[in-house]
């Protein structure tokens, strides 16, 4: 895993991105050279222009989710993802060609050649990502523990996103008797460092929940770290691998002393400026769609068009969120709050459509301009459910140390949630965002939101 602007990227994904960027860079150079063999080529102009073109294309498609592993993705989802990448990339590539200082080499034949190759690269990358990916120089991982935590780590590492990491085996501490993993992969040895050297281990993951009473060989772990082996605990492992902070492996001391959770003035000012600029642009672009939606709501179910509801925001402060009304006017006629679900029978016909396409969320851009919300952050919840969730879920209140968002890391990583268990899963992603949020991660979430909406994925 590589940490880029506080966000982790799988090593095999970085290798794919670099390979595709190099391929496009070389393709542009070859296309120009073959078309203009007898003419003078301005290499000082061509090389940086080709490099910018290649990098801009891979960055765009990374944001659109092309490089996300899709082994367990449906055929429809894979096709939609590749089609979206091609449809977005080709016009953008044509625009990039038009503005770059190519001089004379930027003729029509060169553009067509490179655009065709770009489409081919995108399609092939989409097909390759449906197969098990691997990375060069894949780290060899030893898991300490044999219980449920070790099994959870194994499952996470064998997920397609982490297929580039090789599990060497499991090392059992003397006092841990439960075995929830394959007993044939247990590694024996009187000394942990000897086991690490014998199996050429480069990373150790400590998957032991109980650390007191001599369960862990602390002296041997220190010897391994001094020898250059990376050592991760459960909290750090799940943050790095799955983009979430796991509640079941989290301790208050890790939140207090760990890196992240910085809410400085500079970060707040930059995020606010970003929110205002992007919200204004999105409102201007979405205005015709919002007017059309308002008319359809009026025609089907009458007024009101908007729905205002109390939500909990920054610091636990209550504010009123604005949405297009997607449910019947008597949706909660008994006065009892209910979880919203993906196929809620209270939704109107227009409401089901605008909820599926996330159009009902567009008026929240006004909440962003006012300052109650941010574009990206944990989704705001109703006070009734916040009280319920805070009483049952540890660290739930931590999500309120940043502004709630129109969209969020949890929304693009997890399907629609309508229960306590779903709230726990989403909180784990929210904690990751609160800990690591940067302008880069916000931009990535916005692109991922566009992809989720256009490909019809179930996240909400």
Automatic annotation (TrEMBL):
Its main location: membrane. Keywords: Membrane, Transferase, Transmembrane, Transmembrane helix. Pfam families: Bac_transf, CoA_binding_3. This is Glycosyltransferase. InterPro entries: Bact_transf, EPS_sugar_tfrase, Sugar_tfrase_EpsB_2. Its EC number is 2.-.-.-. The keyword Transferase applies. PANTHER family: COLANIC BIOSYNTHESIS UDP-GLUCOSE LIPID CARRIER TRANSFERASE, UNDECAPRENYL-PHOSPHATE N-ACETYLGALACTOSAMINYL 1-PHOSPHATE TRANSFERASE-RELATED. Residues 271-454 form the Bacterial sugar transferase domain. Gene3D superfamilies: NAD(P)-binding Rossmann-like Domain. It is a multi-pass membrane protein. One of its GO terms (cellular component) is membrane. GO terms for molecular function: phosphotransferase activity, for other substituted phosphate groups. It is found in: Membrane. The chain crosses the membrane at residues 12-33, 45-67, 79-102, 108-128, 273-299. Belongs to the bacterial sugar transferase family.
